[in-house]
Give the backbone structure.
Amino acid sequence: MQDLNSKVTGSKLTASEFNEPMSEIQQAITDSGQTLSSGDLTQLSKATSANVANKAAAVLLTPVNNKLYFIGGTDGGLFKGVTGAAASTYSDNGGAYCGTEFIPTGGDGSAGWLRVDGGNINAKWFGAVGDEVTDCVTSIGLWLDYIIANPVQGVLLDGTFLCSSTITKTVTSKLKIRGNGVLKASGTARLEHIVFDTITDTIDIDGITIDGNNITARSLVLESQSVALVDIADVILGSGLKIINTKGGSGFATANGVRIYGGFRKVFFDGLIDTVDNSLTTGGITGGISVNAAGGGEDYTRTFVCGSNSRFIDIKNDNTVLADADGLKATAGTGHTETTLIVSAGAYFENCKGRAIKSQMSNNSIIAPNIYRDAYDGLAEIDVQYAGGVVSNANIVQDGYTSPNTILASYRTAPLNKQMSIKDNILTVLGTPATDGVSMVELVTTDNAIPIVNGEITGNKAYGTLDYCVSVRAANVSGNRVTIRDNWVDNVNTAFALFWRYGSGTPITNVNVSGNACANSVTGRTLTNTALNVEDETANYNITRFGTVLDQYTISTGSIAPIRRRNLDYFSIDTEADAASDDLDTITGTNFAVGDVLIVSANSSSRTVVLKDATGNLQLSGDITLDNAQDTAALVWNGGNWLEVSNANNGV
């Protein structure tokens, strides 16, 4: 049989058992499977010097080395006397409460009492009272100081603990908090509730509730700025964590349930954020969880993971003009191309007024989130602002309210844009929204020099009515390429797809469009200041053609300016003002490359087009007359002129 002290100090008892009366301590040892002999019982009696009512009574005693003391009160528990140390070794770290160590009145710190704690440090030991009446800001601060400095696991149990001012702590060692208690803001309105800054080690919080009480604009803030790369830490916010009742307003324009700021290796969030609001009618920004870079350098989050149990509910603001109110916002700072956002299957977003998900990271894996909206028209549901990665299997329900674009992906200057795949998502529109959504999926560039690179829109389904199923907004730059395949839509007001222009010029989008369907017969596409090069168009159902049978250009003062669609193209030419005959001496156009070939014909057998030799930039074997719609001429571009390859008088 081992010594009784070693049974106790060796953590054979649980933390709650340490706080029971001595008879229950005896029973707990027995229940652990150990037999207490008569000698052990005698030893227990000797080891327990006193059952003391509270700390105030205990400090009047003289500690006896290695003897056990049971101190009463919510801050009490089992302590062991220690003596013979150097002065100032021990102190009162709980202030007026027991804490984890205290010394006798008038003591010099060479002797005192040490708590036998089993490794879980209870906030109540430092005087925290979970009665939702007592201000616990000082005691919670002492508790946090201890669990950060040692470091050990802190527990916040059984109650609502009021904090009348912001608690800010620097974290340079691992911080781990568990429990079922509530940290609730009290007092006057302020910016922040709980702040951990200068973080250089793991933050791990689960189980507790952080309640902003509608008076704090940021309920939980985690900051890590200007630290060496080797020190960048992880953040783990578990499935039992709840962040509730966060509210911004006058003086606090940005409200976040959780604000992650600066450099972290990985942030994992799997908890609940419920109700983030902002009373400002102009300039009010809100977010459930916001992961932000802190300027340049290394102060940004490398990977942000939103877990399968995460929930974001009622993220809103009172702006008269719709503004950011996003369930999840992830940014990486300019130029950082290897950043990752992962949204796990099952993540839930409800009534996020602006967007459910807003990403400015370049590698996105957004898989099977559940998104529900039955209040507020929004900006979008999923907004990937630096295209790259995949959005798939999202289940999105809009009941009575909509957003212009359900899933939006943008191609921007920086960071580097990558292939974007939006596939197998389901949108269900219920009720009668005031305005139909513009499109289920939109790909858009925001820069005249940036193409839409290998956009893939496949296997998506939209139930209800939209203006378009797909929208593509491209700039006048080479390399625009989109695949639109195997999508299905219930009904559209205008066309299956909208292709429109960013900036100026006439952009061309190379498009593969096949296997798409609509429950009702619809127009295939609407073109606005843009053109298509349809590379494949097969097996579309109830959708008219995307490509035209033949493009047509009309002569204007002897010239035409065709759009280059491919290196071998075919179009018809018509006379100016439907004249009976007209001369063509110049073909200008844009983006033509050496070796490009044009095959042209007359648009009408009743109007003659004459290609003039050596008048403008046509170098022919002689004038070519196209007086029948079946007549053709083939020309090749040598970099300065269009040269005749052949011509054929095919008309009858």
Summary: The longest helix spans residues 137-149. The two ends are 116 Å apart (CA to CA). The helical segments are 4-9, 15-18, 22-31, 38-47, 55-58, 137-149.
